[in-house]
Amino acid sequence: MTSDQAAQGIDDIEYEKPPSNWTLLWGDRMGRWGIIILVVVTVLAVFGPMIWPFDPAAVGEDSSSIFQPPSSAHWLGTDELGRDVFSQFLMGARISLFVGIMATLIATVIGAGIGVMAGFFRGPVDSAAMGVTDFFLVVPALPLMIALAAIFGQNLLIVIIVIGALAWPRTARIVRSQTLSLRERQFVPRARSLGASNARIIRTNITPHLLALIVANTILVVAGCILAEATLSFIGLGDPNRISWGSMLHFGFVSGAVGRGAWWYFLPPGLGILVVVLGFTLVGQSFERVTNPKMRGGA
Amino acid sequence: MTGGPAEPVLSVEGLEVHYRVRVPGQRGKVTARAVDGVDLVVHAGETLALVGESGSGKTSIANAVMRLIEPAAGRIVFDGIDLVPLRGRALRKMRPHFQMIFQDPFESLDPRRTVLDTVMEPLVINGIGESADDRRKLALVALARAGLTPPERMGARFTHQLSGGQRQRVAIAAAMILEPALVVADEPVSMLDVSLRAGILTVMADMRDRLGVAYLFITHDLSLAWMFADRIAVVYLGRVVEEGTSADLIDSPAHPYTRALVSVIPVPETSRDAQRTVLSGETPNPSAIPSGCRFHTRCPLYRELGEPARCREVDPMLAEVHSVVGGHRAACHFIDQQGVS
Known about the structure:
The complex is a heterodimer. By secondary structure, chain A is mainly α. Chain A has 13 helices and no strands. In chain A, helix 8 (169-182) packs antiparallel against helix 10. The model of chain A is unreliable at 1-13 (pLDDT under 50). Chain B is globular. Chain B starts with 7 loop residues before the first strand and ends in an 11-residue tail after the last strand. Chain B is of the alpha/beta class. In chain B, helix 4 (115-125) runs parallel beside helix 7 (164-176), helix 5 packs across helix 7 and helix 7 runs parallel beside helix 8 (194-211). Chain B contains 13 helices and twelve strands. Chain B has a domain at 251-341. Classes of the chains: A mainly alpha, B alpha/beta. The interface between A and B is medium-sized, with 19 and 28 residues.
């Protein structure tokens, strides 16, 4: 063994393992705050409604229970029907996150798929795909979402699909440009000369190099989708049977909570949206920075 | 898979590769004829070197032969089958039999893979080997053959942990594991330190002796071609201007272009009186190939002979040059006038 090692000579240098993305993310101040925010919100959304004793839909017994300010029993008071606001807030976090994440998954699948196809095959495929992408990029999303939600009805699935179907163009653009540069790398013609099919080249040679980019982009898209859901719900086009932060704002507005100064009703969902969007944006931007060596500052 | 030594494993006929390029100061795109009617024959187990300056079209020829770019015209007959009309699965079925070693081993290997995975990949793609273990054994043998020892240890490395020479050995091992009849080597040592070149060429020569592989060896270095190849074809502006056995071509070059290239090969002895011909000017743009003989704009002989109109007007074909072993051909109207100077 010793002679073998000696024969290895300079080949035996120990190579330093590059730090994982998560280590880098945690080391980045913005990334760390983002992660903390998202973990706290996720725990609240998942476990909160199981623990908090009030049913968000249970109306108050009489008129004395409406618009109660925060108290030791109702941490965030009650709404216009005497329902507990804090339990709505917890449930709303669930729906907002769920819609945001599911819509993002749809957007990512569509966007990454179109982007890879356009960048890899170029030519007519690219022109067609980018034509569609540019259309969706310039079309005003909000009026279109309103129109679609109004046409297809108001339930959670429809809301998710409508938001997801409009959130993909940026992802498609980014993935396409990265694919265009990847396909020029020599390992692509090499794989082809070994007999690999296009499908195999995309799967094993292109996609692994896109993953970090797609993840970073996806995290940023979630923030946008949560905002989109809040917007739709606020203008009354969300699922009326589900409580989300957007719908809380909607009912807070129509019930006159704003005029009555019932801040405990409309402030928490507003802050919730703000903080969650901030969390996703921090993590997304930080991830983008740590996975892209060119954007990494300092060393 | 091929017959006697005289059997051509590859024959290229009338190959043309065109690119649409933008020329400064001109509207729209023009056609650049990067490869403009090339005929080549590579016999089984033989090495043919394709020598030319950058921009001569030699890499386009290599990529067209590998069916990585679409030729504008011509036939690429491999083992009796024209590859040009083949598409999709039919083409992929042929690919294991002709492999390529790329110029840049830093670019051609995926840095995320281990060496073993890289060498096993061709087997996985083509469904060769009974099991993963089987493929692993084949890969270890291939690594050892390419001089990467001990193979078990080298196999566990990631390709980004290797030096350029080691990477090129990995690329060679991966290409050879499919036991191809032909390997196209596109400047396989030009990116490597001079000290590593001999090692790589030795491995390639060893593969030729042991596996009977034929090489289409692309290089800009005439002395390297002389050392490594059985025959040499000199390419100028997308056309073969001279071809012959390495010895013939170096000892008695017939085309003025080849003569100029040969004259600047550094040689220790001065038997070939040290009269150097340094060509003036640059290779013309392939989107504006000169009329007649494409070399006349830079040809010393053309000037010497008082600029004959024939050179400007008639495109010379490859014609036999008298030689001992034969097969020496050059495309020049005035082959016989060579001795004059």
